[in-house]
Amino acid sequence: MKVKKRGKKEEEPTEEVGTAPSRKVGDEAEIEGDDLELARQLAEAERLVEELTDQLLRSRAELDNTVKRAAREREASTLFASERLMTKLLPVLDSLDQAAKHVEGMDKVRKQLLDVLRTEGLSPIEAKGEKFDPYKHEALMMVESDEDEEGTVTEEVQRGYALNSKVIRFSKVLVSKKR
């Protein structure tokens, strides 16, 4: 912008809105240096992304392999437990074959089978004379009784069993009620 003062023309630096500031020759070298630094940082970031993606894929594959291995080991463990139980039951089967020939041998077979089942953690649930417990007993019917306290198991229709303290079959029972 030119301004006239007392007859003299003076020039003041002008700056127009919307135009880029003027650059000096040294500025171009600085900008090129900044571009090189940004390009280097971008290349480093891309390398890091590629490395982390590769690590993620490897970790996923390792997890999949671990899950499959655990499933195979669980299956093998189940098969081993079944084999062990069957091996223990084979003598009982032999005794049943022998007992079929001799009726009096049935008590021996029953005792032998119960012994094997007990060693595996099976235990009968006591019911008759006990207070009815819905966590151990299944009530089939209520029976009127003057002799037994209300809610007491008067008869066991089918014995219940627990395996390692977990009920696997509830005792089917008749429960007393007052007349």
From TrEMBL:
Residues 35-69 form a coiled coil. Keywords: Chaperone, Coiled coil, Cytoplasm, Stress response. Residues 1-31 are annotated as: Disordered. GO terms for cellular component: cytoplasm. InterPro entries: GrpE (IPR000740), GrpE_CC (IPR013805), GrpE_head (IPR009012). It holds the Pfam family GrpE. One of its GO terms (molecular function) is adenyl-nucleotide exchange factor activity. PROSITE patterns: GRPE. The keyword Transmembrane does not apply. It comes from the Archaea. PANTHER family: GRPE PROTEIN (PTHR21237), GRPE PROTEIN HOMOLOG, MITOCHONDRIAL (PTHR21237:SF23). Homodimer. Belongs to the GrpE family. HAMAP family: GrpE. Participates actively in the response to hyperosmotic and heat shock by preventing the aggregation of stress-denatured proteins, in association with DnaK and GrpE. It is the nucleotide exchange factor for DnaK and may function as a thermosensor. Unfolded proteins bind initially to DnaJ; upon interaction with the DnaJ-bound protein, DnaK hydrolyzes its bound ATP, resulting in the formation of a stable complex. GrpE releases ADP from DnaK; ATP binding to DnaK triggers the release of the substrate protein, thus completing the reaction cycle. This is Protein GrpE. It comes from Methanothrix harundinacea (strain 6Ac). The lineage of its organism: Archaea, Methanobacteriati, Methanobacteriota, Stenosarchaea group, Methanomicrobia.
